[in-house]
Amino acid sequence: MAVTVNLTPGPRSLWDEPVAITVHGLAPAQRVTLRASLRDEKGEFFRASARYEADAVGRLDLARAPALGGSYSGVEAMGLFRTLQPETPFERLVKKDVQNPFLVDLEVYEGHNPQPTKLLAQVVHERSFLGPGVKRIRVREGSVRATLFLPPGAGPFPGIIDLYGTGGGLCEYRASLLAGHGFAVLALAYFRFEDLPKELNDIHLEYFEEALDYMLQHPKN
Questions:
Q1: Domain closes at, from 92, 111, 128
Q2: Domain that holds residue 36
Q3: Does 113 lie in the same domain as 71?
Q4: Cβ–Cβ < 8 Å for 192, 168
Q5: Looking at the 3D structure of the chain, how many domains does it have?
Q6: What is the mean pLDDT of the chain?
Q7: Within a 10 A sphere around the Cβ of 170, how many other Cβ atoms?
Q8: ω into residue 156 within 30 of 0, thus cis?
Q9: Same domain, 75 and 151
Q10: Do both 49 and 70 map to the same domain?
Q11: Are 64 and 23 contacting, i.e. CB atoms less than 8 angstroms apart?
Q12: Fewer Cβ atoms within 10 A, N terminus or C terminus of the chain?
């Protein structure tokens, strides 16, 4: 019987959506190592791994079975996603382009060797940032530089202005996910983006008032 990795809800999910991982076709009490890895938009490699033992019928359910070591220990259904670490120290996993998903490679290896070599099963899972029907709209109104994310439907929706990102630029990934939960979210850039001030000290507070007025006047709010 071939070893297979089953993912629920399926081959793709949203970044903030839980994923149930089960492995079928193992021998009873067989020891295996599970690995997760992805490469971000800068080319940086992130990975996590955990050691497991199959149950009496050769099945492994990460929501029930405890990890016996590796990147984490104990029962953690999403442990392989939560503990992804960069190969380069201090690098952060940040999504720049929310229109394209991260591809997470999930692998099952035989045994608990720190460097396992026998691959038993493999699957690629898409973790996306735009939910079904969510609209992404670039905003260039007056001096406001932003992206508006709208949930599907006629609205009106509760509005949020997202100022995430202390390093400047336009950070969209949190706003895009919030829109999938029924919020109209304005991801607002406020420095180091296009024609906005280069330094935080040069920002005028009237800019945020202008962004607030834009959201209050929007027909979807």
A1: 128
A2: 4-128
A3: yes
A4: yes
A5: 2
A6: 94
A7: 20
A8: yes
A9: no
A10: yes
A11: no
A12: N
Residues belonging to the chain: 221
The sign of the torsion formed by the CA atoms of 206, 211, 212, 217 equals: positive
3-state helix, strand, coil in the chain (%, to 5): 10, 35, 50
Q: How many CB atoms lie within 10 A of CB 98?
A: 23
Work out the burial of residue 194: count CB atoms within 10 Å of its CB; fewer than 13 is exposed, 13-18 middle, 19 or more buried: exposed
- The predicted model scores a pTM of 0.88
| Residue corresponding to tokens 């079904």 | 132
Q: Is the CB of residue 35 less than 8 Å from the CB of residue 47?
A: yes
Is the domain of 16 the same as that of 106? Answer: yes
65/151 Cα distance (integer angstroms): 37
Pair (55, 156) in one structural domain: no
CA 101 to mean position of chain CA atoms: 8
SS3 152: coil
Is 42 in the same domain as 80? Answer: yes
Each residue of 114-162: pLDDT tens digit? 888 899 999 999 999 999 999 999 999 999 999 999 999 988 999 999 9
> Among residues 82, 113, 128, which one ends one of the domains?
128
